[in-house]
Amino acid sequence: MSEQQKKTILIVDDDQDIRELLSDVFQQKGYIALTAEKGAEMWQLLAGSNVDLVLMDLYLQGEDGLQLAREVRARHTMPIMMLTGKGDETDRILGLELAADDYMMKPFNLRELTARVHALLRRFGALSQELPKIIKEKHECLGFGPWQLDLTARQLLHSDGSEVALTLGEFSLLEVLARHPDRIFSREQLIDQSRGLESEVFDRTIDVLILRLRRKIEQAPKTPQFIKTQRGLGYFFQGPVRSN
Q: Which of 41, 59, 95, 107 is the most exposed place for a label (fewest CB within 10 A)?
């Protein structure tokens, strides 16, 4: 692949070891990897390079990564992926959705990280038709009806080949439900189980996410086939669910 065809990832992290690790990993996958320790270096690289995706730590020394991501979002159209420590107070799903297109908790799995970066680039149209062949590792997937939920790349695919875009909250909620078919969850349990949904999220948020998911995956959202309501108790996912 020529240099012109390679896609560029900008890694923003104040940890040198992580910058070097991620740079090596993505270069091995066929990308051009640029690195920045702080916001000032990031802005210089964004001004002087054609960056296709920004991979940024939520916490940078003396800087707010989430605020930097918001500023990048306001000025640029490339996808943004955040890296964050588990349990961070600011790691709220609704806040991250405003600035980032996806995020992963540290410590992260490199195979999953590269797959999800690849999926983001493809979703944003930054990859050629040939580039999806770069990543051929086996993905963890769950299947139900005509749908395949790729847990590694965090994608929802239909059997006709189309992809349905899910927000971070929608994906996390669908993953919890599909992993436990026919188990009834209360709203509080769904908040606890879903990655990225914290205790500050109100019960009503779950209802809104369920409504949005039904509109995306159900043929008849008012009489759902998959995401069922158990009156007075909560929600459950009606199986069967296939796994690879």
A: 107
Are residues 59 and 33 in contact, defined by beta-carbon separation less than 8 angstroms?
no
| Cβ-proximal residues to 232 (8 Å cutoff; 6+ apart), any chain | none
Encoding tokens for residue 109? 């799995």
Token couple for 224: 């759902």
H-type alpha helices, 60-198: 65-75, 93-99, 110-123, 168-179, 187-193
CATH of 141-243, one of 3.30.2010.30, 3.65.10.10, 3.40.50.720, 1.10.10.10: 1.10.10.10
For 170-229, the pLDDT digits (tens) are 888 999 999 999 999 998 888 777 754 443 444 567 888 899 899 999 999 999 999 999
42 pLDDT band (50/70/90 cuts)? very high
- Mean pLDDT in the chain? 83
Closest C-alpha to 226, from 186, 180, 187: 180
In terms of CATH architecture, what is 8-134?
A: 3-Layer(aba) Sandwich (3.40)
The counts of H helices and E strands in the chain are 8, 14
Closest alpha carbon to 126 in 50, 69, 21: 50
